[in-house]
Amino acid sequence: MSPNSNKTAEILRLIQTKKVATLGDLSSNKHLLGLFTASKKATPRRRIIDTAALLARQGYVSVGLLDNEKVFKITAKGLDRLKAHQVSQEGLNMTERWDGRWYLITFDIPESKKVIRNQLILTLKRHGFINYTKGLWLIPYNPAKLIISIRKQLGLKNELRLIVAQAIDADSKYRKHWGI
User: Fold this and answer.
1) Minimal CA–CA distance to 109: which of 96, 89, 123, 128?
2) CATH class of the domain whose range is 3-75
3) Which one of 20, 91, 115, 127 has the minimum C-beta count within 10 Å?
4) Which residues lie across from 131 on neighbouring strands?
5) CATH class of the domain comprising 90-178
């Protein structure tokens, strides 16, 4: 994830926490001010305001007026983006010693859920999985906790499967890749 995605995720998280956040809530939040640095063109407050406006244009938050003050509320699309960010931040427990097993992930996600499928693939790549063959992702470390998190965050159940194998073809190539 890019550094900007962390900033946008933090804005979305703050809006979600407050249910409805005012422009003042966002632009005066010390945590957000610490994330956004000043540039030649804008102060941290201005950059927060601009990012919130961009999130509104992209449909991640809705904007309204309450007592003549702009207020932001997270949308379903914004919740999906926040969940996707949380999944990508989940850690994978890479044990110090390889247990001799190979862990393969496969999934069957329809075209109608292409965004979720793409987010899943990006998450697998970020956590070190290798595309073993079309639709099959490989790693030598037990990803069970990560898979539980992915299923929960992306709303997947039977679409995502974990396979544990004692041996795979050409494993020396993969052992070398992971240094095992």
Assistant:
1) 123
2) mainly alpha
3) 91
4) 137
5) alpha beta
